[in-house]
Every structure is written in structure tokens, then in C-alpha cells.
Write a structure and sequence with these properties.
Elements: H1 6-9, H2 15-31, H3 35-42, E1 49-52, H4 61-67, E2 71-72, H5 73-84, E3 102-104, E4 126-129, H6 135-140, E5 146-150, H7 157-163, E6 168-174, H8 178-191, H9 194-198, E7 202-205, E8 220-226, H10 232-237, H11 249-253, H12 255-269, E9 270-280, H13 289-303, E10 307-309, H14 313-318, E11 333-335, E12 346-353
Parallel strand pairs: 5-6, 5-8, 6-7, 8-9
Antiparallel strand pairs: 1-3, 1-4, 2-3, 9-12, 10-12, 11-12
The protein binds S-adenosylmethionine.
S-adenosylmethionine is lined by residues 133, 151-158, 174-177, 180, 208-210, 226-228.
């Protein structure tokens, strides 16, 4: 009998092909008729947003972006859509007071942004990111004087967006990975004045976020839990650091457990009455709604903490001119990639700690 020599004979399948096969199996069931169009979007070039760095003294940045045909999707939503949509007139419907500016090209326009430029102080004028990844930060609704924990912060796009609110009293940015924390520090140095970094307002650490579960300190007003996930778009396009690599199967299968533990740590860290936003860049129900639902139950049963999921439907309505949202997930909101607005996937769910 010939012994099977797996290492030598097993055909080498690209991790991105394994990812596509996995997504075809699961997302066609989850998204039904929507899956073919989401699939095409995810396999096509994604769209970026330019998060304006308000700490930069480049006074021309806004007009330069406008001249290229971009608009700040946040102020556009607040000034144009808020006033014309009667559903949004209720002031509690869209609790957004934001200084964040994120420019995007119009729907269907696939122009690319020029690389960011340094101002006379050496600070970069904008940060390019998936514009939908600003939504979890907006949903967090940071208010003046708030202390915020960004539990999984590297490489720092959302940390930078949080700092653009100018409202923070204190920001604790953490990431388990040393290399990601190093990237986060470099990002902060490229975008923030040295004086601000010296003030001690921003604290960066590199520890396992799950440790917050053991701390008996529920002090933060807001916590962002932007967890590691299957990073669906990356998994379809890149071989490097691909979680669908066969050797990482166990790590991938354990993701929902890790995500739930991180969310529970975030719930533990926020003060009663404070808010937590959970987010991923995956379409997976198992990593999105299921994690949230399980964490809410475990928080109540094992930690005696009551958590309520907040309704974000008005929030998504406000931004529906820029992003394609999935029709009503069980809990939370999901930005679906679409050829005309190729942002996401980004899932977000807002939770309020009641006790
Ligand atoms: N919020 C980041 C941003 O906007 O740039 C992206 C975060 S990324 C989706 C998830 C991060 O979680 C990774 O940088 C990873 O190193 C980190 N991570 C993984 N396990 C962790 C843990 N146990 N505790 C804290 N961070 C963890």
C-alpha cells in the first residue's frame, strides 16, 4: 500500500482561492440574491476615503480635495440629508456631532486619491482608509471630556479618526501585536503634533485585550472593539498574512471565541451608561451577529452586566447615500461592497451597558 505523502503530493491551492470557495459556500446562503453583486464588488478594486488630519496646517487640503470632485460624506449627510429626510428630524435619530471629515469620490466614480502630503511641520494632511471604517467611530458618539479605550487599535486608522473628534479627555489605544503597535505609534507621530503626544492624553500599550475582563475597573465612557476577523477583502486578494492558509485553519475557527472574549472585555471596561461599539471587516454572521448575541447573554449570566443593543437604523439611513447597507441584520448594521460604492464590508453594532 502506498503511503499518502501529503506534504509532497497535496496540490497547492492559493489561500485566496480557499477564501473564495468558503465565502461562496457560506455567503450565498447568508446573503441569497445579494451575494453575486457583493462578490463582484469584493473582487474589484476597493474605494478609499481621505480622513482629513485637522492637526495638519495644510490649509489647502479641503479645497484641493473638493477640486478633485470629492465631498466630505459626513457633513454632506448632516447638512443635506438630515434636513430633507423627515424620518431623521427626530434629534435622537442621528446623534452625530462630529468634527471628523472624510472625503469620498461620488458613487460610481473610481478615481484614486493622490498620496498624502506633509505640511510645513512634517505632518501628513490626510489618511487613506476604507471610508466605511469611520462609521464605527461615528457610532461611538464621543462627547467632550470622554475617556475612550480602543482595544484592538493597530495599525491605527480608527484611533486617528477618534482623535479627529477633538473631544477626548483621554485615549487608551491597545493592540496585542508588537509590530502593529509600532505601526500605530508611527502613524500617530506622522499625524499628531509632538506636544499632543507629550501631554499624556494618548496612552499606547501592547497587551492581550482579553485582560480587561479580569480588571475590575469600569471607567471608560466609550470603548471601541474592532476585532481581528477573516478580513474578507484582504483574504480574497492577498496571499500574505492570509487567514485561509491551511496552517491557520484552527486560528480561523477560533476567531468567534476570541471576538466574543474581546467584546466581553470591552463591556467590562466601559462604565454603566457608557457605550461599546463592536466592529469587524467581515460579512460573516458567525463573527458578527452571533458574537454580539452570545456576548450579551454571557455578560448577563456570568458577569451580572446588562447590555442593550442600540438601534442604528437612523444612523445608517443618514449615510445611505454613500454606503450600501445590508437589509436588516438581526443585530447591528453591515456595509456591503457594491460596484458603485465599493466600501466595506464593515459590520458595526452599538451596545449600551445598563448596569
Ligand atoms: N482598529 C484598527 C484600525 O482601524 O486600524 C484595526 C484593528 S484589526 C481589525 C484587529 C487588531 O486586533 C489587529 O491589529 C490585531 O493585532 C489585534 N488583536 C488580535 N488579537 C488581539 C488581542 N487578544 N488583544 C488585542 N488586540 C488583538
Amino acid at each position: 500500500r502506498v503511503k499518502t505523502k501529503w506534504a509532497g503530493t497535496r496540490p497547492k491551492v492559493a489561500s485566496s482561492d480557499l477564501a473564495l470557495h468558503h465565502f461562496d459556500m457560506t455567503y450565498s446562503l447568508q446573503l441569497g440574491d445579494l451575494w453575486p453583486s457583493v462578490r463582484v464588488g469584493m473582487l474589484s478594486e476597493k474605494k478609499y476615503g481621505a480622513l482629513v488630519n485637522s492637526f495638519s496646517c495644510d490649509s489647502d487640503v479641503i479645497s484641493a480635495l473638493q477640486t478633485q470632485g470629492c465631498r466630505d460624506f459626513i457633513s454632506t449627510a448632516l447638512t443635506e440629508h438630515l434636513s430633507t429626510d423627515p424620518e431623521l428630524h427626530n434629534p435622537t435619530a442621528a446623534p452625530i456631532t462630529s468634527h471628523i471629515q472624510c472625503f469620498t469620490f461620488p458613487r460610481g466614480d473610481i478615481s484614486r486619491f493622490r498620496p498624502a502630503r506633509s505640511d510645513s511641520n512634517g505632518l501628513l494632511n490626510y489618511y487613506l482608509l476604507d471610508a466605511a471604517s469611520v462609521l464605527p467611530v461615528l457610532a461611538l458618539d464621543v462627547q467632550p471630556g470622554h475617556s475612550v479605550l480602543d482595544l484592538c487599535a493597530g495599525p491605527g486608522g480608527k484611533t486617528l479618526a477618534l482623535l479627529q473628534t477633538h473631544d477626548l479627555r483621554f485615549l487608551w489605544a491597545n493592540d496585542l501585536s508588537g509590530s502593529r503597535t509600532a505601526r500605530l505609534r508611527r502613524t500617530l507621530q506622522s499625524y499628531l503634533p509632538t506636544e499632543l503626544l507629550m501631554e499624556g492624553k494618548v496612552h499606547v500599550t501592547s497587551v492581550d485585550g482579553r485582560q480587561w475582563r479580569d480588571k475590575d475597573e469600569s471607567t471608560f465612557d466609550r470603548v471601541l472593539v474592532d476585532v481581528p476577523c477573516t478580513t474578507d477583502r484582504h483574504s480574497l486578494m492577498e496571499e500574505e498574512n492570509n487567514i485561509f492558509k491551511r496552517s491557520r485553519t484552527r486560528e480561523r475557527q477560533m476567531l468567534p471565541l476570541l471576538q466574543m472574549e474581546l467584546l466581553l472585555a470591552g463591556i467590562q471596561a466601559v462604565r454603566p451608561g457608557g457605550d461599546v461599539v463592536y466592529s469587524t471587516c467581515s460579512l460573516s454572521q458567525l463573527q458578527n451577529e452571533c458574537v454580539v448575541q452570545r456576548a450579551v447573554t454571557v455578560a448577563q449570566q456570568e458577569m451580572g452586566i446588562r447590555v442593550e443593543v442600540q438601534n442604528l437604523s437612523s444612523f445608517t439611513r443618514l449615510f445611505s447615500h454613500t454606503f450600501h447597507f445590508a437589509p436588516q441584520p438581526a443585530v447591528g448594521e453591515l456595509v456591503l461592497p457594491h460596484l458603485c460604492a465599493n466600501f466595506g464590508p464593515i459590520y458595526l453594532c452599538k451596545l449600551r451597558r445598563m448596569s
